[in-house]
Each structure stands twice: as structure tokens, then as C-alpha cells.
Amino acid sequence: MVNRLDPAQPLAAEFRQDVQDALTGFLTGQRQVLADIGAELDPMTELAEVFTGGGKRLRPAFALWGYVAAAGRPDHETYEALVRAASSLELLHVSALMHDDVMDNSDTRRGVLAAHLQFAGLHDEHDWVGSGEQFGRAGAILLGDLLVMWSDEMVHTAGVPLDVLHRAQPYLAAMRTEVTCGQFLDVVAQAQPLRPDRLQDNIDQVRRVVEFKSARYSVRRPVQFGAALGGARDEVQQALAAYGSPLGRAFQYRDDLLGVFGDEEVIGKPAGGDLREGKHTLLLAYALADSNDAGRNRLLSLVGSADLSDEGLAEARDLIIASGARDKVEADIESHLDRALAALDGAGITDEGHQALSVLARAAVRRSH
């Protein structure tokens, strides 16, 4: 692993490889730990390796450049420890994906079968008794739990001095609590019907879910965690919070657009899945609020149907576009990006940190997957 940080390319292939090397090294050690318990656990490590083998690596990048923003470029030894600590966020992220796919009954993740379906396939392959579906869900939940524990172990064995890690720990704790609570807020929201008589409430509810389930977890806490490792002053942390929350919301809004209009081969999951699920997104909330009665009623009749045909998906997309919701979400993304970038000005951070966080902000919201 070599210190190859480049503020003009904060997600450079070399940096992403460093993250992958850190994850591979950690999981190799865990493979032996699980092997000593029993061969039955081989699928756990295999799937952990599969699902940590890809992704945008945004959270580790925000953490690394949060450190640089506060403390400047690290030396080689510090860089290696920081990469390992930052990479632990990927284990936490994948744990959330495993649980998310169970809750959403998703078929694919990162271009392959979702973990619960792979565990179900293992059950069927061995002709075990009981429900393969139930076995698959149990396996995926436990894999997610294991990855949460491993994320904690990885950060504590990264080589960061304990006093340094101690001052950053509150941001990790907040991140774990907020994403879990945000997930439950989302579950509660999804359990409530989309009612035409409370359209503004729908919009407000979606925004609150996004703040805690995505914005703080994806950007704000990772960048603050890295900055805390670098000894950031309170005013720097406040500026990074003002950067991270709007950028994290814009990041999720881009995901929502891709979930409806994205290319399935690029995004690695079924296109239109959010509409079949009836997922409460800002895009859908805007579409319902800004459609006429006929359009709103037709859209409500289409979304939330697991067997919605391709023709029905196309019609739902057309209704969303006609309502102006797609353009409205795009405008929100740009507005939130502008707020995030403005928060960096005068924040008292290093020039390299400012440059890299600006590049990362644009990469997070102007993407195709």
C-alpha cells in the first residue's frame, strides 16, 4: 500500500485498490477464524468477500479526505492506518445492504444475486429440510450482523493510536445509530399508505428519512470521522456537517432517480424496482403532489405492484416526467450541491482537502450508478 492521495482524483483507481487490499487482508484473517469454528461458515466469508469486492468507495474517500482537510497529507505509516480505519466503513455499509435487501426482498445486489437468495440456493442445493426462503433470510441477516461486528473490529485493529481513535469514536457511534434508526423510519414510512390528502406530509417524511438513513451515514459522519482522526477543531466539524448533510441528501436523490430511470446493467439492480416496491422517495412524493387528479390516481394504481409490467413501468415513468417531478429533483440535487460546496469556503480546511471534497461532492451526485 502506497500513499497515493491525489486531491484532483480522490477516487483514483490506486486509492480504491488500497481500500480493496485493506478489506481483503482483514477478511483473509477472518476466514481462518471462521474456519476454526466450522466449515459450515465458509459461505459467510465467501459472500463477505463478494459483496465487499465492489462499490464506489465513497465513504472511505470522505473519511480519508476529511482527515486531510483537518490535518494535511499523512505520512506513509499514518496513511496505511487511515485506509484500514476508513475501509471499515465499507463493512458497515455492506452490512446495511444485506439487511436492506432482506427488508426490500431485492433480487440482486452489485450485479449478482442478493445474499438471501444465495443462501436460499445453498439450502436447495443440499436439499435441506424446512423453508429455503426462510433459511436464506436468516443467513443474510446474520451475515449483516457479522459485518457490523467486523467493522468495529477492523477500525480498532487498524493501527490508529487509541487516543486518536477515541476522539473520533463519537462520530462512528452516531453513524451506526442514525442509519439504524433511519432504516426504521423508512420501514414506518413504507407501512403508511400514500394519501392524496397529506401530500406535503409525505414530502416532509421522505426528507427526514433521507437525512438519517442516507445523508449522515453516506457523507456527513464519514467526513467528520476522518476529520476527527485529524484533530479537527469544532468550527471545522461544523463546516463539514454543513457540507455533509446537503450533499448526502443530494446523493440519495440521485439514487432515487437512478432507481427509476437508471440503466439496469450499470446500476447493478433491476431498473424500476423502486416503483414496483412503491418506495417512498422524494421523486414519487413530488410526482403525486404535482400531478392532476387523474395523473395522481393513475400513478397510485401503478406503483407498489410487484408484478407491474414493463408497459406499466413505462407509463409510471411518463407520469412522473409529466408532473415535473424529475426536473424538480434534479434542481434539488444542484441546490444541495451548491450548499455543500459553499460550506467548504472559509471552513478553515487545507487547500488539498477543499479541492478533494469539492471533487468528491460532484462525483457523488453526477453519476450513472
Describe the structure.
With 369 residues, this protein is mainly alpha-helical. It has one domain (13-365): Farnesyl Diphosphate Synthase, CATH 1.10.600. The chain is built from 16 helices and two strands. The chain has helices at residues 13-37, 42-51, 58-71, 76-104, 115-125, 132-156, 162-191, 199-229, 234-261, 264-267, 273-277, 282-290, 293-302, 310-323, 325-344, 351-365; strands at 108-109, 112-113. A hairpin with a 2-residue loop joins strand 1 and strand 2 (112-113). The longest helix is centred in the middle third of the chain and has 31 residues, at 199-229. The two termini are 27 Å apart.
User: CATH superfamily, please?
Assistant: Farnesyl Diphosphate Synthase
Helix-strand topology string: HHHHEEHHHHHHHHHHHH
Largest sheet: 2 strands, antiparallel
- State the CATH topology: Farnesyl Diphosphate Synthase
- The domain tally reads 1
Coarse shape: globular
DSSP summary, beta strand count: 2
Gyration radius, to the nearest Å? 21 Å
Oligomeric nature of the chains: single chain
Based on the structure given, which CATH architecture is correct? Orthogonal Bundle
In the sheet with the most strands, the strands line up as 1-2
Label the structural class: mainly alpha
Proportion of beta-strand residues: under 5%
The total of helices stands at 16
Mean pLDDT: 93
Low-confidence segments, ≥5 residues, pLDDT <50? none
Given this structure, which CATH class is correct?
A: Mainly Alpha
Pfam families: polyprenyl_synt
GO molecular function: metal ion binding; prenyltransferase activity
Family: Belongs to the FPP/GGPP synthase family.
Organism: Raineyella fluvialis
